[in-house]
Amino acid sequence: MKASDLAAARWIHGAPDCDRSTDPPLQVVAVDEDTFVIRQSKCVNFEAPFLYLLLGTTKALLHDTGATADADLFPIRRTVEDLIAGRSLRLMVTHSHGHGDHWAGDAQFTDLPPGSVAPIGEEGVAEFFGIEGWPRGDATLDLSDRPIDVLPTPGHLGDHIALFDRTRGLLLSGDTLLPGRLTVRDWGAYRESTRRLASFARETAAHGRPIRYILGAHIEMSTTGELYELGTTCQPDERPLPLTVDDLFALEAMLDDAGETPRSIPGDRFVVQPVDGA
């Protein structure tokens, strides 16, 4: 599958009765031989996060580990090992942010060498990547021939980051931007993070490295623009996973128009939802 085909990918999306579901615990879609998108089954955990496995020549990066620690229920470690079998790669594990549905699977990677699994929390994340001046700094993660830009994007959570894969033009946006609810806990930080991401998108395009797709950590919206109920285990007729740089620019404009006072902003591709205290 090419990156351009991701919009047509059909994902496991749960079942009305999970006791009768025939879905596997996770689904792997290969963008190319070195790039994999993994989705957790909603019948294993309703969050059904998307995880990303990027392979370089000497290193492999798993970004997020899912919502379930139990390897029998969610065999993310075994799946990753199968995908990198036959290659001599050092595995690294990072997270979009510190909510449990993005790092519960870390329990399956505790035997990796020290320094292989990124911590959660702003201070630990900044130290792991070598980001100075959080959240305005940035860093580059080198997968040996595959540079990954690391961009702090607090707002949904204080330790949130986005990753940009320069070689594939993929921006991994976590919960900052996805087809569904954009839950904002720090309104000011979220507006600033969105501006920085939009500026980054313009700069990369000017240097001949445009963002081809923005890939978030969840799908929470139908093709008709309706949000699925929180906690549901069945999401038929989902929107495609990928968003585009135009969606990022639209979000930037929405937040600029909204101003400094948090408020809900409806949309047909995502909905901004500040929480109490944002």
Helices and strands in order:
Blueprint: E1 26-32, E2 35-40, E3 50-55, E4 59-63, H1 76-84, E5 90-94, H2 122-129, E6 139-142, E7 147-152, E8 161-165, E9 170-174, E10 181-184, H3 187-206, E11 213-216, H4 245-258, E12 271-274
Parallel strand pairs: 4-5, 9-11, 10-12
Antiparallel strand pairs: 1-2, 2-3, 3-4, 6-7, 7-8, 8-9
Helix pairs in contact: 3-4
Gist of the model:
With 278 residues, the chain is α/β, with parallel strands linked by helices.
Description of the molecule:
With 278 residues, the protein is α/β, with parallel strands linked by helices. The chain has one domain: Ribonuclease Z/Hydroxyacylglutathione hydrolase-like (Metallo-beta-lactamase, Chain A), CATH 3.60.15. Helices cover 18% and strands 22% of the residues. The protein has four helices and twelve strands. The strands form three sheets. It has a five-stranded mixed β-sheet with strand order 1-2-3-4-5, with helices on one face. The protein has a five-stranded mixed β-sheet with strand order 6-7-8-9-11, with no helix packed on it. A hairpin with a 4-residue loop joins β6 (139-142) and β7 (147-152). α3 packs antiparallel against α4 (245-258). The protein is globular. The chain starts with 25 loop residues before the first strand and ends with a strand.
Number of beta strands: 12
Helix content: 10-25%
Count of all domains: 1
Label the CATH architecture.
4-Layer Sandwich
Order of helices and strands: EEEEHEHEEEEEHEHE
Beta percentage is 15-25%
CATH-defined fold name: Metallo-beta-lactamase, Chain A
Low-confidence stretches: none
Distance between the termini: 40 Å
Shape: globular
